[in-house]
Design a protein that fits this description.
With about 575 residues, this protein is α/β, with parallel strands linked by helices. The protein has 13 helices and 23 strands.
Length: about 575
């Protein structure tokens, strides 16, 4: 990119930041900015043509069912009426999703095509992380993971007005805010995990969004550079490689989008322990311009953006993430108070603004897909939403500017995510997850005889800052042979993996899963390690970094809420660094 990432403020007396300081930069004349990205009248206005299944379809339904006196006719009439009813519900009720600051979209059915035209989308992934989607639980449900990205793009007049840097219009944007929203398989709890933007992590090979350029893997750049190395798909692939967690979707917003969304919800409540003015000082230039009195304030417009960009006054990148989490919690509460999922009037405004403010991955590129997502998110309670910032240390090669994850603490958080364990202690008090299978579940096939199954064992033990265990694949192959899997063999190619996985060919379907589960059971592996893979030809056991010794897997003890000290950063009010305290008068 030709620019070094912005210095972190952990030491507070750092040198002057770059002009391109993204979400930390001084607004540079943002006071003159208008609320770009605000609500506009949809094409055709409120009287836009109804979607298929509207008035004309209902007239046909009436004609078709007149005089239906037979049992079959009455059944047909009921069926027709049911369809019409569904259409009416879709037209006038929720097609909505509120994904905190980075995702709020919804609509009545009449605006379906109009809103689809607002949505901008891109490829889900920018490279191959090798991470597969988690295995479903007993009810067939899987966790949901959405990567939320804040871009520092200056490509529009609105973004320049809000973020400064007129000479940066042609520069590639950086992913200055990155949070993974994890929603549990049972949809009862959620976690929001942040990585500070200047954290150096392994970045895999990525392709540009147009597929014409390939960016080599690197271990010496901060994570916010991923957006310039292949777009949001590269940021997603980096998170997958780092965590071992499959990410379903990404959502991205820029400066103007944040302002538009904050205005649409009518302000978001945030709190400071003292008055705050994030401004230039003799020691540290720049600042967001945030100026708030002590206590709770509902911020909106440019002030909302200032809150999200404030770093100096809160003392560090980690505390900035805490402030961003407070904002997201406040927005979710505000939306719930407004009945945003069911109030048609609120939905119309949120839909128009949200679909314009967001860019999303292809899996969310229609209102129907956003509707499906919204239905999975709307029941998660705010008091079961954990906010986590990955613990970090100064980066050894550039300690004044960059950070690096604290390996053991970060891996503990990633392990909880991979195994869908709640980050809050309320998880211990929550009702046990149902284990009953759906009434219409198909009978499971019987696994084939062990001796008839070809199993490839791969050494994936490299990870967590430790080298691969030499000969590990051979040891597990021998253990399988001793249990009757005489066709087990090893792969000469290592494949580092955070967790152990037993994969089976996707084309093999239920029978393939039954066979793979028999392999897992023979070694003491839980069924959650079994998953389908469309790229392999036979059962493949990847021995991960979580199983470096022994021939029988021991399931690690994991407790809800067992996160590293200091990682859970939920706070009622933000403390203000003394230099930036404001008396509320001057």
């Amino acid at each position: 990119m030709g620019q070094k990432s912005v210095r972190r403020e952990g030491t507070r007396q750092s040198s002057v930041p770059h002009a391109r300081d993204g979400w930390d930069d001084e607004p540079h004349g943002a006071a003159e900015a208008t609320g770009a990205g605000g609500e506009q009248e949809p094409a055709g206005g409120p009287e836009a043509p109804a979607a298929p299944g509207g008035r004309a379809a209902r007239r046909r339904g009436t004609a078709d069912t007149e005089g239906a006196g037979t049992a079959g006719g009455r059944a047909a009439a009921r069926k027709q009426a049911k369809k019409a009813g569904k259409r009416k519900v879709l037209r006038w009720s929720a097609i909505g999703v509120a994904v905190l600051v980075l995702g709020t979209a919804g609509a009545g059915w009449a605006y379906y095509e109009h809103l689809n035209g607002n949505i901008r989308s891109g490829g889900r992934a920018g490279g191959d992380s090798g991470v597969k989607k988690a295995a479903p639980n007993a009810l067939g449900d899987t966790p949901l993971n959405i990567l939320l990205i804040g871009s520092d793009s200056r490509s529009s007049d609105a973004n320049v007005a809000l973020g400064g840097g007129k000479d940066l219009r042609d520069d590639k944007p950086r992913a200055d805010v990155q949070m993974l929203l994890h929603v549990s398989a049972d949809r009862q709890n959620a976690s929001l995990i942040s990585i500070p933007r200047d954290t150096v992590v392994p970045i895999p090979e990525c392709k540009s969004e147009d597929g014409k350029e390939t960016f080599p893997a690197t271990t010496t750049q901060p994570i916010n550079s991923t957006l310039a190395r292949g777009g949001p798909g590269c940021t997603l692939t980096t998170w997958e490689k780092l965590t071992g967690v499959y990410v379903d979707h990404w959502m991205m917003v820029d400066f103007a989008g944040v302002v538009a969304m904050a205005d649409e919800v009518g302000g978001v409540p945030v709190c400071v322990t003292t008055g705050v003015h994030d401004r230039s000082t003799a020691q540290v230039k720049g600042g967001s311009g945030l100026k708030l009195k002590e206590g709770t304030t509902e911020v909106k417009g440019e002030q909302a953006l200032q809150w999200l960009r404030t770093r100096h006054a809160f003392g560090s990148d980690q505390n900035r993430a805490k402030a961003q989490h407070m904002y997201l919690n406040g927005m979710l509460k505000k939306l719930q108070q407004q009945n945003a999922w069911t109030d048609t009037g609120r939905l119309m405004g949120l839909a128009e603004t949200g679909t314009k403010a967001l860019q999303v991955s292809d899996g969310l590129d229609t209102v129907a897909k956003l509707f499906d997502l919204g239905m999975q998110l709307k029941n998660v309670k705010v008091d079961r939403l954990s906010t986590i910032t990955i613990p970090t240390d100064p980066y050894a090669q550039n300690p004044e500017a960059w950070l690096q994850p604290r390996p053991a603490d970060a891996e503990k958080i990633w392990d909880l995510l991979r195994n869908d364990v709640a980050m809050d202690k309320n998880g211990d008090k929550a009702p046990a997850k149902p284990t009953a299978k759906p009434a219409d579940a198909k009978p499971k096939p019987t696994a084939a005889a062990p001796a008839s199954l070809a199993v490839t064992v791969v050494n994936g033990t490299e990870g967590n800052d430790l080298p691969a265990v030499e000969g590990r694949a051979g040891d597990i192959k021998d253990a399988l042979t001793g249990k009757g899997f005489t066709q087990a063999d090893t792969s000469k190619e290592a494949k580092p993996s955070k967790g152990t996985v037993v994969a089976y060919p996707k084309a093999a379907g239920d029978q393939g899963r039954a066979d793979a589960e028999s392999v897992a059971k023979a070694l003491g592996l839980p069924s959650s390690t079994v998953r389908a893979d469309g790229t392999i030809g036979n059962i493949t056991l990847v021995v991960g970094a979580d199983w470096r010794e022994g021939s029988a897997y021991k399931v690690p003890e994991r407790k809800a809420g067992d996160v590293p000290d200091g990682a859970n950063d939920k706070a009622k009010c933000m403390d203000v660094y003394s230099v930036y305290r404001w008396d509320g008068v001057s």
